[in-house]
Write a structure and sequence with these properties.
The structure holds 2 protein chains of 2 kinds.
Chain A lengths: L6 H30 E2 L10 E2 L3 H7 L2 H34 L2 H16 L2 H12 L5 H8 L11 H28 L4 H9 L4 H30 L2 H6 L11 H10 L4 H26 L5
Antiparallel strand pairs in A: 1-2
Chain B lengths: L2 H28 L17 H8 L3 H32 L5 H13 L6 H10 L6 H7 L1 H17 L3 H9 L4 H12 L1 H17 L2 H6 L8 H9 L8 H21 L1 H10 L4
Helix pairs in contact in B: 1-13, 2-13, 3-6, 3-7, 3-10, 3-12, 4-7, 7-10, 7-14, 10-13, 10-14, 12-13
Classes of the chains: A mainly alpha, B mainly alpha.
Chain lengths: 291, 270
């Protein structure tokens, strides 16, 4: 390939890269600006008071910060666990199915991922609702009292985990699916001849082969899960009593509900930092090729 | 029970889980009166909730806004991401790895991460409550994926075609629009679908960045209609609105699956 001087590549790159880097990286710089000043809904277009690192102190001494970090840990741990287990299992089942069966089920299991998170939020809200929910219809027809899923802190957490698992699992199915294709059909034949059961084959033969994919998948869905808040915002708004207020939602609500932009910006700094660590791991593990 | 039967049963069980919210939303959206206990099926289906939602002030125009924004995002992202993908695939230049690393970072980082500084920046640029501002903002949702898509697609173009064009004296700019663009119809369609789909479905930026009625996007207007009452949720609108939101997705699944698959493969997801 011929090397070009700066002009022609710049011409091709500038529109997309300019827009992208402005939105992503320039906004990080701007974020520092917000952190170092006291910016609220009242003064965000006028003069800002310089406050140094005081916002870090405010965020770190706020008990809601600890609550939101705990919530994030619970939400992420359970969502990721469920997505990994269910997603890997389903992609294995699809891999072992005959093509006709696979072609039938694949669009069905992928469908949630193609939906807006707003559909996930609304759909699960309608399923779990105390007023019109399918689950409560079944619960009452069994003779029990209605459950207000969004009224209790544990049930609200379960609700958002369910919705997030529903929405996110297809990604794991897709990614693990491409891992499964690297298991050669001869291996299946050989283990059949040896009389190995399905379970033995899956755990002893398939799993070790797809292990690198599991790692990559784990990092990717961790990044997406710890940052997920649109779904929660639409489902519970962080309630009841901050029980589903996860860390990124904590920053969002501080900025847009309480009008404290600097607080939200400070939370963003922590988030960016955590994300960069995870992505560094991803680049190492996945051995990302840089063109 | 044979292992094969167990496998099918497990797949069916997951499919039920997968389809349950969609089924329930559809069922509720067509039921006459939504009250407890709900009916499992709509006995005498009605479209009154849809009519109600669409005639709610600001909803119909918000759908038009979302379509306009979605089409624009699709169009612009195809144009500029194909150019960037071409540069990454076919041109050598200094700093390529470094810039590419930035694209990967943006691809992996969730766009909502930057919502606080972006809001403040957009306020400074007087681009809040602005549909053109959203077209600009939504590029972050789709550009990284589309750049990968074009990059991988252009990588598959045979060297021989490129070389014969070079012999004919075609420079890099000419090769881009005379050879690569005409060859990449599937990639263009896939990238366009992504652009439309991601902006159509986006909800957090939409509810935060546009608050004035005639400019709202559909997800925001729907959310507002559902939660208009202080202490009550309008379940009728919630159900009907979800189905309206779902329509483009279903259309893609039915008519555009081929392109979706191509897109996901090229985008490195599948």
């Amino acid at each position: 390939m011929r090397r070009y001087s700066f002009l022609i590549p710049a011409l091709f790159l500038l529109p997309a890269i300019g827009v992208l880097f402005f939105l992503q990286f320039f906004s990080w710089g701007w974020n520092i600006n917000l952190v170092l000043h006291d910016v609220t809904l009242m003064n965000f277009l006028t003069d800002w008071d310089f406050v140094g690192l005081q916002n870090f102190q405010t965020v770190l001494t706020d008990t809601r910060t600890i609550t939101s970090l705990t919530n994030t840990a619970i939400f992420a741990f359970t969502s990721i666990g469920l997505q990994m287990i269910i997603g890997t299992a389903i992609s294995y089942l699809l891999y072992r199915a005959v093509p006709k069966v696979e072609r039938f089920f694949r669009p069905i299991v992928i469908l949630p991922w193609l939906c807006s998170v707003l559909i996930a939020a609304f759909g699960w809200q309608l399923l779990l609702s105390k007023d019109i929910g399918l689950f409560n219809m079944v619960i009452t027809s069994l003779g029990f009292g209605r459950v207000d899923f969004f009224g209790g802190s544990t049930t609200a957490m379960i609700s958002i985990v369910l919705a997030n698992t529903w929405w996110g699992t297809p990604f794991t199915i897709l990614l693990m699916g491409s891992g499964m294709t690297s298991i050669s059909p001869q291996l299946i034949e050989a283990s059949k001849v040896d009389g190995a059961s399905e379970w033995i084959f899956f755990t002893r033969v398939a799993l070790p082969i797809i292990l690198p994919f599991i790692l990559i998948n784990l990092i990717l869905i961790t990044v997406w899960t710890i940052n997920m808040f649109g779904l929660i915002l639409a489902m519970t708004g962080g309630g009841p009593l901050n029980a589903t207020r996860v860390f990124p939602l904590h920053g969002y609500l501080a900025a847009f509900d309480s009008g404290n932009f600097s607080y939200g910006a400070t939370v963003t700094v922590f988030s960016v930092f955590i994300n960069l660590i995870l992505i560094y791991l991803y680049v190492k593990v996945a051995n990302v090729e840089l063109v | 029970m044979s292992e094969k039967a167990t496998r099918i049963i497990l797949l069916i069980a997951y499919s039920v889980f997968s389809l349950l919210p969609i089924y329930w939303v559809t069922s509720l959206s067509l039921q006459q009166k939504i009250s407890f206990p709900p009916k499992p099926f709509p006995t005498s289906p009605t479209i009154s909730h849809y009519v109600g939602l669409l005639t709610e002030s600001g909803v119909l125009i918000s759908i038009l806004n979302s379509v306009f924004v979605g089409l624009s995002v699709g169009f612009i992202s195809v144009l500029i991401s194909s150019m960037a993908g071409y540069a990454f695939s076919k041109l050598e230049f200094r700093g390529k790895k470094f810039i590419f690393l930035g694209v990967i970072l943006t691809f992996l980082l969730p766009p909502q991460l930057n919502i606080v500084p972006l809001y403040s920046l957009f306020a400074e640029m007087r681009m809040l409550n602005n549909r053109l501002g959203m077209i600009f903002l939504y590029q972050i949702l789709v550009l990284p994926l589309n750049i990968f898509l074009f990059l991988n697609y252009f990588d598959t173009v045979k060297e021989a075609i490129v070389e014969s064009a070079i012999i004919d004296g075609a420079g890099p700019i000419r090769r881009y629009y005379k050879i690569f663009i005409p060859l990449s119809k599937p990639a263009i369609i896939a990238a366009f679908i992504f652009g439309f789909r991601f902006s159509w479905a986006e909800y957090v930026f939409a509810t935060t960045f546009i608050r004035s009625e005639p400019k709202m996007l559909f997800t925001a207007a729907l959310n507002r209609a559902v939660f208009a009452g202080q202490y009550t949720i309008n379940y009728d609108y919630m159900a009907a609105g979800s189905i309206l939101l779902l329509i483009p997705t279903l259309l893609v699944l039915i008519y555009g699956q081929k392109y979706l698959q191509i897109g996901l493969q090229l985008g490195g997801v599948d």
